[in-house]
Input
Amino acid sequence: MDGRAEETDEQLLARSVAGDEEAFAALYRRRQGPVYRYALRMTGNPAGAEEVTQEVFLAVIRQPESFDSARGTVGSWLFGMARKHVLKRMEKDRRSVPLDDATEEEAAGDTGVLEEIVSEEALEGLRRALLSLPPRYREAVMLCDLEELSYEEAAAAMGCAVGTVRSRLHRGRALLAEKVRARQECPA
Output
């Protein structure tokens, strides 16, 4: 087995800064998916999410010195950069586009056709409800619940206090539950 699997993100970043292209590639492979998913869930735009992901990793190459281990992990640093790019993009676009069914892989498994359709409709409803949340609540839900970052990591990524993350997460979950309930009561 390759020793890079046991290396921390910080070790890979340090080796990357020293010119090790394989270390950068390993860091990219490890963190590209979560950064892309975060950007996709925040914007609802696959092309925009790809651009955000590209910008984040270009910043890693151009400005690796902006990482400060005292402020958080490499993961929270990457999500923080993604957040800045997403917010810029959202400000520029000023509109969110709903995800289409083909944007995320969904395994059908052995479920029946009817169950699959109902499941896809429920998933689409949840995606739309997530996209309709105000960005500050959406990002807290995305980082903590979907990307499973700790409160501290999310706070570092969002550039705010842990208490702010907790309150935004609480409010975001409440709003999301409200929106999902409303969709179930009166489907469009």
